[in-house]
Amino acid sequence: MESRNKCKRIIRIHLGSINDAAEQSWLQGQFAASNLWIGFTDRVTEGTWEWISGEAVTYTNWAGGEPNDFGGEDYYVMNWNSKGEWNDLNGGQVNYCGIIETAPVPLPSALLLFAPGLAGLAALRRKFRHS
Question: Domain with 53 in it: what CATH number?
Answer without folding.
Answer: 3.10.100.10
